[in-house]
UniProtKB/TrEMBL annotation:
CDD domains named in the record: AHBA_syn
Protein name, as recorded: DegT/DnrJ/EryC1/StrS family aminotransferase
The family this protein is said to belong to: Belongs to the DegT/DnrJ/EryC1 family.
The keyword Transferase is assigned to this record: yes
Organism: Larkinella bovis
């Protein structure tokens, strides 16, 4: 073997990028443009009197998830709020949430005057740890919001069992989990209600938007009413029965979602195949551990591909420096959330404004070590659109990481 004579240069220092592909998102073509243009041309843009495309998409998405009902709304935060309100939580009730998630999972609990109770995640999956849930239940606990983080299913058998024994509602936050499955069932369809976001970064998007799916007719009717200013089907326009708001989406969003939904299954299969393949490749690299669950029971949709980074195997290179180098090599990636949610000023300072949260609640003493570690030093996220690349792209991602490792440990 000839000895390597050239010195490798990282892209961040002006060398050639390892990954040459680019990863567009959103993905659309002329048919999407046409579909939206037709709705615009029809002049029927919104409001419940001309919401055929909205109703059609709700039927399609419910059918895709295997639920009886679906209610669209303006975003995936409002969808959580609708589900919480319809579930009948009362001021001061406790709702169990993970601290390693987007703020909406917990802030919507505040918005219904309830108390978010933070329960730590399982280090193997970054999802709520069922044992820790059980330990956090009090006589005020009313609901659990499991987040299928990154698109990896929570242990729903364990969570539903806890909920049944303690008479709790389960609202799945499936904002990362369109098309993902647990034991053959779509995520979002297992709890009392499942909430999804269609914000720009999500695996199914119309720029903004949200939806709640459920099999519970009472919940459905209440959520549909709350979304539509408290109106009820079969009554007059100016009759308001419930304390809702106007959270409706437009016909343009709905028709775009119907278009995009046709691509979701193929995209989910592709991300799933790429994710499994990438895990094989990265498992062979010293200092990296891909997150994984019981893969034979689930279908991961890789809204995020997450691995744990150990700086010791990279010559002490900090995670921040590693991610900057990886991004420069052409891998769309990030270090993710900087803090567990309870560390955010809104919780630390209890800036709760008009919300009726009991004085005894104190977030300065909350400490969830697994979430802390994930935020501080461990987690690396690769974004979902990169998981729509080819097998060659996955090999290039692994090669980019090996290149960084070679340069920082031998350089
Ligand atoms: C994106 C997201 C939401 C909220 O969705 P929006 O449409 O942005 O309001 C809720 N939960 C999680 C975990 C999310 O990632």
């Amino acid at each position: 073997m000839e000895k390597q004579v050239f010195k490798e240069i990282l892209a961040i220092d002006g060398g050639e990028k390892t990954v040459q592909s680019t990863f567009p998102w959103p993905i659309y073509d002329e048919s999407d443009v046409q579909a939206v243009a037709e709705v615009v041309g029809s002049g029927k843009w919104g409001n419940p009197d001309c919401s055929d495309y909205v109703a059609a998409f709700e039927r399609e998405f419910a059918a895709y998830c295997g639920t009886k009902y679906a209610v669209t709304c303006v975003n995936g935060s409002v969808s959580l709020r609708l589900a919480l309100m319809a579930c009948g939580v009362r001021p001061g009730d406790e709702v169990i949430v993970p601290p390693y998630t987007f703020i909406a999972t917990a802030s919507t609990v505040l918005e219904v005057n309830c108390v978010p109770v933070f329960v730590d995640i399982d280090p193997a999956t970054y999802n709520l740890d069922p044992n820790a849930i059980e330990a956090a239940i009090t006589d005020r606990t009313k609901a659990i919001i499991p987040v299928h983080f990154a698109g990896l299913a929570c242990d729903m058998d364990a969570i539903m069992d806890i909920a049944r024994r303690h008479n709790l509602r389960v609202i799945e936050d499936a904002a990362h989990a369109h098309g993902a499955e647990y034991k053959g069932r779509k995520l979002g369809s297992i709890g009392d209600a499942g909430s999804f976001s269609f914000q720009s970064s999500k695996n199914l998007t119309s720029g903004e938007g949200g939806i709640v799916v459920t099999n519970d007719e009472k919940l459905y009717r209440m959520m549909a009413s709350l979304r539509n200013v408290g109106r009820m089907e079969g009554h007059q326009w100016y009759d308001h029965f419930n304390p809702g708001c106007n959270y409706r989406i437009t016909q343009m969003q709905a028709v775009l979602l119907s278009q995009q939904l046709q691509r979701l299954e193929d995209q989910t299969v592709l991300r799933n195949n790429n994710g499994r393949y990438l895990s094989e490749l990265l498992s062979g690299i010293d200092g990296l551990s891909p997150l994984s669950g019981r893969m034979e029971e689930i279908r991961h949709c890789y809204h995020l591909y997450i691995f744990k980074y150990d700086a010791a195997a990279f010559g002490g290179l900090s995670r921040q420096e590693f991610v900057a180098r990886l991004a420069a090599e052409g891998v769309p990636c990030s270090t993710g959330y900087p803090h567990p949610l309870y560390k955010q000023p809104v919780f630390q300072n209890k800036n709760f404004m008009c919300y009726a949260i009991p004085d005894s609640v104190d977030y300065t003493t909350v400490f969830c070590p697994v979430s802390e570690r994930a935020c501080r030093e461990e987690a690396v996220w690769i974004f979902q659109h990169a998981m729509l690349g080819s097998q060659d792209d996955m090999q290039a991602f692994a090669e980019a990481i090996r290149k960084i490792q070679r340069v920082v440990t031998q350089g």
